[in-house]
């Protein structure tokens, strides 16, 4: 009786079990493995290095409980924009209008709540409706008319900035009622006690770490099952430990300040939801397919126009969320609100590993990229660095991040 077990020199596909196959996953050229591991884990290492650097340069002030809380409050809206922007970039597009949309949605909310005297939640609803309408406007021109997103959103940047001025009559509106202000400036604390610290904040931090570890482990097992390359197990464990330590230190500092910011809960919910959307849903896979290889996606039956339309509707929605948070944080609406926010969001996505050509990027990576920008900006402010020099440093960091992506692609192409 002839055995069906393939010989060791067989050229056909292997039938070995997944655990056995896992022994071969990740083997190959050491330089390739190093580059792959750098791409997967380098952004986390970079964040830790930058945090440590500014802690040293500011004599620990950047890691004080009060300052860490301020970083969350001051940059949360940029992180919200980065979630939407990375999806836009994965799809092979760009959105230059998000700063103007932040200003417009905040202005609409202020008119409804402050000028018209409506309940605070009516302002939130009005802002979200306007954001969705703006996203649909952009999506129509990009998806169904075929105008490049760069041009459409550049026009939108001018259009919606002008509408903001008209809505506000060129004046600022303030203040919002306390309930609205609590969205970006409120805290949850004292729910389960703690002697000199907020135990609830530590509990949430521990749950977040556990969820992250479980998610990463499941992703690793799935990649091994399908014989896809993964980082070494030692590096995987080291990354889990590093992320866990950073998150728990972060939670510890928040627990010794004012507790858990409400805006951080909103941001965490968005990260979880959009992480699932991009990794676990048909829509998410189609966005990657369109950005990675548009002709192949079309031949595979992906409804490219529909997906592109909803990419921009989603960006409009998240711009409205950021507008609500920013206006709540500012306790008012200003005609110049949101200026240059789009550049910070784009920088966060690219620093976090998104590719300039589309098809590559993650929500978590965009969050880490945004945190790198936030820590850098905050650290330089604490050091008294001039605003012009801050712009120079951030521009150089963005350039290096994109150059690293281009270098990786060239190396990968040369290895084929």
TrEMBL record:
Where does it reside? Cell membrane
Polar residues bias locations:
1-17
Can you tell me where the transmembrane regions are?
41-58, 70-89, 96-114, 120-137, 142-160, 199-221, 233-252, 258-277, 307-326, 346-376
Q: Give a Gene Ontology cellular component term annotated to this protein.
A: plasma membrane
**Membrane topology reported for the UniProt record:** Multi-pass membrane protein
MF term (GO), any: transmembrane transporter activity
Q: Residue span of the signal peptide, if any?
A: none
List UniProt keywords, sorted A-Z.
Answer: Cell inner membrane, Cell membrane, Membrane, Sugar transport, Transmembrane, Transmembrane helix, Transport
Alphabetical list of InterPro entries matching this protein: ABC_transp_permease
Q: What's one Pfam family the UniProt record gives for this protein?
A: BPD_transp_2
The region called Disordered is annotated at 1-23
What function is annotated for this protein? Part of the binding-protein-dependent transport system for D-xylose. Probably responsible for the translocation of the substrate across the membrane.
* Protein's name in the database: Xylose transport system permease protein XylH
């Amino acid at each position: 009786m002839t055995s069906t077990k393939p010989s060791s020199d067989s050229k056909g596909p292997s039938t070995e079990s997944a655990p056995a196959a896992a022994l071969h996953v990740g083997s190959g050229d050491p330089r390739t493995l190093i580059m792959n591991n750098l791409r997967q884990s380098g952004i986390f290492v970079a964040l830790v290095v930058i945090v440590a650097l500014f802690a040293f340069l500011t004599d620990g002030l950047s890691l004080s409980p009060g300052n860490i809380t301020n970083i969350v409050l001051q940059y949360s809206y940029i992180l919200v924009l980065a979630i939407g922007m990375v999806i836009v970039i994965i799809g092979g597009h760009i959105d230059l209008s998000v700063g103007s949309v932040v200003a417009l949605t905040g202005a609409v909310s202020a008119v409804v709540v402050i000028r018209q005297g409506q309940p605070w939640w009516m302002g939130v609803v009005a802002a979200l409706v306007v954001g969705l309408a703006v996203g649909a406007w952009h999506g129509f021109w990009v998806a169904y008319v075929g105008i490049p997103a760069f041009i459409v959103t550049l026009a939108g940047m001018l259009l919606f900035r002008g509408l903001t001025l008209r809505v506000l009559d060129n004046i600022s509106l303030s203040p919002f009622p306390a309930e609205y202000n609590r969205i970006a400036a409120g805290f949850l604390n004292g729910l389960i006690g703690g002697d000199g610290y907020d135990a609830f904040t530590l509990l949430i931090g521990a749950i977040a770490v556990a969820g992250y570890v479980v998610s990463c482990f499941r992703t690793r097992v799935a990649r091994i099952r399908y014989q896809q390359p993964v980082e070494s197990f030692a590096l995987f464990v080291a990354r889990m430990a590093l992320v866990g330590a950073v998150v728990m230190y972060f939670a510890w500092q928040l627990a010794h300040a004012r507790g858990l910011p409400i805006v951080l809960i909103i941001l965490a919910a968005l990260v979880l939801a959009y992480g699932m959307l991009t990794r676990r849903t048909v829509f998410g896979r189609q966005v990657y397919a369109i950005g990675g290889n548009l002709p192949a996606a079309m031949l595979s039956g992906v409804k490219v126009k529909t997906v592109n339309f909803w990419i921009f509707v989603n960006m409009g929605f998240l711009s409205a969320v950021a507008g609500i948070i920013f206006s709540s944080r500012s306790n008012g609406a200003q005609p110049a609100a949101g200026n240059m926010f789009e550049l910070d969001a784009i920088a966060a996505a690219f620093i976090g590993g998104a590719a300039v050509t589309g098809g590559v990027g993650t929500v978590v990576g965009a969050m880490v990229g945004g945190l790198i920008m936030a820590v850098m900006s905050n650290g330089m402010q604490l050091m008294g660095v001039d605003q012009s020099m801050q712009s120079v440093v951030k521009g150089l960091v963005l350039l290096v991040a994109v150059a690293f992506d281009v270098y990786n692609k060239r190396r990968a192409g040369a290895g084929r």
